[in-house]
Design a protein that fits this description.
With 386 residues, the protein is of the alpha/beta class. The chain has 2 domains: 250 residues, Type I PLP-dependent aspartate aminotransferase-like (Major domain) (Aspartate Aminotransferase, domain 2), CATH 3.40.640; 131 residues, Alpha-Beta Complex (Aspartate Aminotransferase, domain 1), CATH 3.90.1150.10. 38% of the residues lie in helices and 15% in strands. It is built from 14 helices and 12 strands. The strands form 2 sheets. It has a 7-stranded mixed sheet with strand order 1-7-6-5-4-2-3, sandwiched between helices. Strands 8-9-12-11-10 form a 5-stranded mixed sheet, covered by helices on one side. β2, α5 and β3 form a beta-alpha-beta unit. α3 packs parallel to α10. It is globular, with a radius of gyration of 22 Å. The site of pyridoxal-5'-phosphate has 12 residues, from α4.
Amino acid sequence: MDISYIINELGEEREHYFNAVAPPIIQTSNFAFKKVDDMRRLFEDEYSGYIYSRGLNPTVDILRKKLAALDEAEDCLVFNSGASAIFASVLANVKAGDHIVSVKKPYFWAQQMFNVILPRFGVTTTYVDGTQIENFERAILPNTSVIYLESPNSWSLALQDLEAVAELAKAQGIITICDNSYCTPLYQKPLAMGIDMALQSATKYIGGHSDVVAGVLTGSHAMMTKIFNSEYLTAGNGISPFNAWLLIRGLRTLPVRLQKVTENTKAVLAFLKAHPKVEAVLFPHDESFPQYTLAKQQMQGACGLLSFYLKVEKIEEIVTFCENLKHILMAVSWGGYESLIIPGCASVAQEAYNVAQKSQRMLRLYVGQEEPAYIIEDLEQALNNT
Ligand SMILES: *Cc1c(COP(=O)(O)O)cnc(C)c1O
């Protein structure tokens, strides 16, 4: 399907709402029936129509159709956060006594689910270095029901060979889930590589304006039906019509925003690589990246997030660098207009500062959509004053 058609037309039935070009926000909690039989039909199968907006809603449906098509998926559910999408996708596929294999250091709240919540229900998780397929092979147990992936990882940028993991899992009846927030469906299609479910934090690139928190889950119609009828309706963590509308608006400019971020990232990367105070950079589509070949093979693009290490004697110099930035904001998240930075040392107490630890010398930069010179000048003045 043509991407412009998906973004501009798919799911939109303009003749039903006065030929308005922009979609309507159907801000209603419930829907009325004329016939008892119609109401009964919806009670029997809530996934077949509109009864209550904790389930389906017409504005959300426009978005679901577009997001499913972008991922080449049969179906899609949209949640009120990326974390909800993660939680629902995993919870729906484990029972007491099951085992999960997860790539090491996935998104923090996925780790919390694996480490704190699921063990209370007898579900255990083994973390593996996902750069080697053998590590997955070794970690699989007879009771493994889910393999959880995040490629690339949003900090280390480490990749997994998605086709190889999917093939391994399929042979053993294991469900695979991949967090695709870094790439979006425009730059990587996990389902086309055999992964069962793709998810992303729509808070990042789909929303694109740092103003909405949301999550997307795509997969087979059977799987989405199962999750809708259980985790989705029970936890009540669907997206609101207004936030769905913001995401539809975000999608309209997604391709052009990613293009701009890609160009900017190239310029910033070249600057950082040449700067004497920068020890190393990590970026999947940079030739120096350890998994460059795989990154070129399975990701159609890479942009925005990159990590770099500063050459410093003391962690305090990194603190000075960050606090000297005039335009780049120190903030979590990414995918909006503005460039953002997080120093690794913000995750450790000041007393624990240790410059010998590489993770503390690391910074995660999101290159936004400002003019590249504006971003580079800011980095340069802050580096020179460090
Ligand atoms: C932000 C993020 C999430 C969580 O998404 P929310 O929308 O913040 O709940 C999940 N995975 C990755 C890689 C993220 O960056």
